Amino acid sequence: MMIVTERPAEEREGAVTGDELDGLNEVYRDIADELGIETALGIFRLFHGTQVSFPNRLFSKEYVRRAICREFNGKNARQLAKKYNYSERSVWRILKEEHETD
Q: Cβ-count burial of 70 within 10 angstroms (0-12 exposed, 13-18 middle, 19+ buried)?
């Protein structure tokens, strides 16, 4: 009779069986369902034990400011606001502030 001891999932070479997928903590299961198990395992390896919060905006304020100033053509404030998820008023404020620093 041969006894096989199995290593925990995080010690194996990234292999997760179907039964283990059902046993994942909710956030990892959601990630695996949406982006794949390899991505979920990568996020686990990078961040396990760390509390992570994601900003509401994808791009940094500095990037958006530069992009709005670069892309503004005099008529597209509304389109830029929509593109970067800002209000049109905020786009005009950014443009005004940039103009004042020139």
A: exposed
